[in-house]
Amino acid sequence: MDFNYMNAFQNYHNMDMMIDYMNKNYAHKYKFQYSTPSDYIDALQQMNRTWTTKYDDLFPYADCPQSYWTGYFSSRAGAKSNVRRGSHLLHSNMHFQTLASMEEGADLDKIMGQKELMLDAMGIYQHHDAVSGTARQDVADDYDKRLNAAMDNINSNYGELLNKMIKSDSANWTVTCSQDLLAFQECPPSGNFGQKPYFMAVHNPSSVDINLAELDIDSGKYKVAVHQDGEYKDLKEAEVICHDDLDQNKNAI
Amino acid sequence: MYVKAAIKPKGIALYRITPDSSSDLTVKTVDAKAGDEIIFGDLALKYNGINKQEGDASFTVVDNKFTTESSFDFGLKYWASYVNYHVWHTSGAYAFRQIDNLFKPLPYSELVRTTVSKGDFVQKFTLYYEKTVKKQNVTAIVHVMLDHDFQVVKVDVDLNSLPDIYLNGYEVVSVFQAVDDFDNNGEFWTDSNGLEMQRRQLNYRSYYNITDRVYSITNLNITANYYPINSAISMKEHLGMRQFTVMNDKSQGGSSLAPGRIEFMQNRRIPCDDNKGVVEWLNETDASGNGIRVPATYYVQLSYMQDRPSQQRLVQ
């Protein structure tokens, strides 16, 4: 049970008394002692029994006939997608961290610090009331805040590392921001970059080719160039597809 | 904006996007009518209009390499949550329980408009869902396109705020229905934490008898068949050769409650606590007090097993 066994002194004191009493009065039948998992497994093995094999899992759980615990699979859907994004970022960033740490004069403390912050946030999120969405709103918000702080931290570094690897145009990177594929975010800072060119770096951390990059952008007229062999070459295969975000009554959807 | 990329594994590409009035990359978008097709590679996706019975959008995947056709419907529905302040076992953050005598999810919104954008390079359908419930807009935008990396249909469901909750909660599901008598005989597979696929049988447990008296009188045959989905639900035809797989991009609950039907729960908003320790409603709101907006992406593969290998592990 949650929040039980918080007072160790009280619990051990009670258990000690119980063990003493039982061993004093019922020693001919039972032996009471503190056990460990290995003691338990040893005892099972000494019974020399043949055990059955279970192939499937135990989902879904129900604590009584009217109450299947199947809602938490989807509760706090926003948090669940945030965790998945965090996991993507954590793994894709390791590639960059490895490259960065091999550079001469690399600040290993900083790199490891960032990684640990991320691992911390992701680790905490694996708690059975965190990623499941069964924490209270305030607590859920705190989990999110921790993860976002760690993701921001890595994202800023991601930009710096990309700049270093590309080694050009870094002066133009006045704003670096990341947009995870498929997520609708307030990024890029659309509408603000006027006639200045806008740079998009796409990292493919997976083990298969990717063929399409997607970017949220204001409607308008653009030209796209791809960086190849040290120069930018115009790319014809780029298209903008606009969609309405107003409903029939001209309200924002 | 969509840009063609050819990025090797672990690779990076850099693009420069310049505002330029002489270069218009915008693709013309027009209202779609039944029979419109979008094409990528060997595959084409045909829009068949609205299925009158269910109000779903109907699509056909045309495989030009193997000359096969398979159709599926997409719909947004919801389960009305069982909410009762005098009853211990309600729907809430932990438990999912729909109102009594509800065996099919209710229509969530109304498909009012479908557009098609046919570029030389990228083509897609956009579905607009709109409805007014108690003076509140119930909206969603769904983008349907053929994936450029794998032979799957990519369905982006951008689900806007769920309406304010008064008496009933909303548990919104995205429903994919394979049509043309797709019968999986109550059998489907769900992933176990992204690893091995576990076989699931509708209303059945291998280790105890689930269909006892309580089960049949309390309408639990919906919630008892929900499973945690980390990456995919898959099923195959009992007597045919078609396989139907829907992959998702985050952890969700999901099930297959009818032949050829796959559903994923996308968002929940419930004015009730289920007495399991949260002591709060499940009511997530954004800065302006509206329900949170939850986008999700699904990848649908419906094909003949002998023709196309499953794309599930590659997408994952």
In a few lines, what is going on in this structure?
The complex is a heterodimer of chains A (253) and B (316). Chain A is built from 5 helices and 7 strands; from the N terminus they run ααββαααβββββ.
Helix content of chain B: under 10%
Give the strand line-up of the largest sheet of chain B: 3-9-10-11-12-21-18-17-14-15
Number of strands of chain A: 7
Biggest interface goes to: A-B, 91 and 100 residues
Largest sheet of chain A: 2 strands, antiparallel
- Large-scale geometry of chain B: globular
Strand content of chain A: 5-15%
Kindly report the oligomeric state of this protein: heterodimer
Q: In terms of structural class, how would the helical and strand content of chain B be classed?
A: mainly beta
Q: What is the average of the pLDDT values of chain B? A: 85
SS field, number of helical segments of chain A: 5
Instruction: Tell me the strand order in the biggest sheet of chain A.
Output: 1-2
Mean pLDDT of chain A: 79
Spatial gap, N to C terminus of chain B: 24 Å
Quickly count the helices of chain B.
2
- What is the makeup of the main sheet of chain B? 10 strands, antiparallel
Instruction: Give the strand content of chain B.
Output: over 45%
Please write the string of helix (H) and strand (E) elements of chain A: HHEEHHHEEEEE
What ranges of chain B have pLDDT less than 50 throughout 5 or more consecutive residues?
Answer: none
Characteristic terms for this protein:
heterodimer; A: 253 residues; alpha+beta; two-stranded antiparallel sheet; 5 helices; 7 strands; 11% strand; B: 316 residues; mainly beta; 10-stranded antiparallel sheet; 2 helices; 21 strands
Describe the structure.
- The complex is a heterodimer of chains A (253) and B (316).
- Chain A has five helices and seven strands.
- Chain A has 253 residues and is of the alpha+beta class.
- In chain A, helix 3 runs parallel beside helix 5 and helix 4 runs antiparallel to helix 5.
- The radius of gyration of chain A is 28 Å and the shape is elongated.
- In chain A, 21% of the residues are buried.
- About 9% of the residues of chain A have low confidence.
- With 316 residues, chain B is mainly β.
- The longest helix of chain B is centred in the last third of the chain and has 5 residues.
- The two termini of chain B are 24 Å apart.
- The chains are: A alpha+beta (253), B mainly beta (316).
- At the A-B interface, strand 1, strand 2, helix 3, helix 5 and strand 3 of A face strand 1, strand 2, strand 9, strand 10 and strand 11 of B.
